[in-house]
Amino acid sequence: MIGSVRGKLTLKQPPSLIVEVAGIGYEVQSPMSTFYQLPDTGADLFLYTHLIVREDARELYGFASLNERALFRALIRISGVGGRMALSILSGMSAEDFAACIQRNDSGTLIKIPGVGKKTAERLIVEMKDRIGELPAGGASRTESGAADAQQEAYSALIALGYRAPEVARMLQDIESADRSAEDIIRLALQAQTAESR
Asked: Running DSSP on this structure, what letter comes out for residue 41?
């Protein structure tokens, strides 16, 4: 098991990033909550990681905190929830919002997350009830990405997270992108999407 990586951040393309360690570039999948905290490209980076080994692939997931990784691991233990869906959940709402949904039996908000259907939302509520006290807390901080075309990067990232193109266009249409990084635009879009579902 690869528990963490420390190296140079060489690429940020949500939800993927590349961390170069001793000349080897590790491709890591991360939730947007981690992307908000990334340093500029070229800077040193440390991530807690979780490796999923499948018959056809090995996927490395990276997190800014142990709490994020703990929630990710709790989610993937649930039947029908894989790494991609767990990333969508972590990207679509904070740990506090997720805990609130579980406590309120709010499947309606959960199904707004790409890839989460009604049955999966209900399963999440039932199976996470026992673990609600163990769920992490804490929000994400803002970091500038310095991307040349933040709006396009945000669009591509939301598509990669599972939203459909018309939905992404609607999410981004009311966001003023001037002087905002891609991470800021994505965060605002996801917050607006969560607010709409309430």
From this structure: T
